[in-house]
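Quick bug: Antitoxin output formatted oddly.
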Amino acid sequence: MVITTITSREFNQQASEAKRAANKGPVFITDRGRPAHVLMSFEEYQRLTKQRRNIADALAMPGLADIEFDPPRANIEIQPADLS
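Here's what came back:
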């Protein structure tokens, strides 16, 4: 992912370039040197705002490889059912 930063003036003069850059990653638009807006592709917006509905979606999220998670192994013993 490429993060681009442009001024409001540059955005007004070069909207096409900003839209192309948004396809590669977020574009920060600054006002007087401070971030004021973020431009991103609609697909990225949908990805960020959609609700995760299942474990497969949650496990596919970006950055998951950076999270250390080593749960203890569960010991489940089978017991006969009491049908009396």
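Actually, after a second look the formatting is fine. The mean pLDDT is 86. Closing.
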